[in-house]
Design goal:
homodimer, two-stranded antiparallel sheet, 11 helices, 11 strands, 22% strand
Chain lengths: 226, 226
């Protein structure tokens, strides 16, 4: 499948590399390709510069947001949550129309320190904001409840015996998302309902952040035992 | 152990019955014992009147909030979250001082319809409100992330292979709470940290409510796979 991953941080890199490894035609979208590739310092999170990652992943093509989205059959919104709407605007509403858009970001607000709070909570969600702003996109909220390495390679933990969620208004889009997740190795995928249920999975970040601190590792996930 | 369970709803009943069955000396606290026992209609949630439950559980003694708390070694705050502070005030700060107080309620706000929102979110929590209001109580937030039947009898689902959390400022109090949970059958208990981590477990309710709707049963729980 032709997939555009918007965002060059750890989440975008992890999911893009894995999707390319699985044989998809993957483009990573960024605001300014030349500027992104010109950076030689680690980013604010201490990750290696994108250029080093891109050199190690020649199958993934960097492109401007709009070029990446225009060519794609499916778009993954993988920037930081605070940057998602701007990146999607840059991708262009016309380039998103009719397409499945996976929103895998979280509405984290670092302005009050750490752990971050959420800039939308139980009366709205980032997933809903994206769906409202791009009504012709078929938005599915998913994967935001786990670390990037587990999003991309769930079988590395307990052979994948843990849960992913999908939220969205379009059943066919959720089916596409579920199949894509299954291709990554996700074994247990729960359809929570329409896009408003993204409020639930986004608010999960609050306990995720405390668990990260208490357990001392991001290599854990929620399993819904039932 | 002498335990006071404050609250006569489904949560209070489930936990009180189970603790009595395990040999604890359990009192259920209510505002007005005579009025509570005089009700003959099901409550607003369709539960049988408390008097019928009390008749079936003669080992559990109903008492006024203050009388229940005065006699207890450990107090469980099991009213609705919106009523918790009032019930604890009625129990009396002096009767809570020095004691382990388990807060197992959630700050649910039904004023905007269903699913409910939370009246405190990522900048505060009900657990913190209780600890601030009763600084001499040793508050532990726990059990609020699952259905009442699972709080009391975790082994009924997957032989207890799922997770409970504790949050609190007092390590010795968390040890008492953890031992009490283990006596109920909880096998995996994660200490998240101080009472501010209750923000995480309270915000978990948002996805719990969506899962309840999607799965069509409250008989599920979170397991932290790690």
């Amino acid at each position: 499948m032709k997939i555009a991953v918007l965002g060059t941080g750890m989440v975008g890199r992890a999911i893009a590399a894995r999707l390319a490894e699985l044989g998809n035609d993957v483009t990573v979208g960024t605001r300014d390709v030349a500027a992104t590739l010109a950076r030689t310092e680690p980013d604010g999170m201490g990750n290696p510069p994108f250029s080093a990652w891109a050199a190690a992943h020649p199958a993934v093509t960097p492109a401007a947001f709009a070029d990446a989205a225009a060519e794609a059959e499916l778009v993954i919104s993988a920037t930081s949550g605070a940057a998602s709407l701007d990146a999607l605007h840059a991708a262009g509403a016309g380039n998103l129309a009719g397409k499945v858009v996976l929103d895998i970001a979280n509405p984290l607000d670092f302005s009050h320190g750490v752990p971050p709070t959420l800039f939308v909570k139980d009366t709205d969600s980032l997933g809903e904001q994206i769906q409202r702003t791009f009504p012709d996109a078929r938005v599915v909220k998913t994967l935001n409840t786990m670390n990037a390495a587990l999003m991309a390679n769930p079988r590395q933990l307990a052979d994948g015996d843990h849960t992913a969620f999908v939220s969205g208004n379009d059943s066919a889009a959720k089916k596409v998302a579920t199949e894509l997740l299954a291709s990554l190795g996700h074994r247990d995928i729960i359809d929570l309902g329409d896009i408003t249920t993204a409020r639930g999975t986004e608010m999960l970040l609050s306990v995720w952040l405390r668990l990260f601190s208490a357990l001392g590792t991001p290599n854990f996930n929620f399993k819904i035992v039932r």
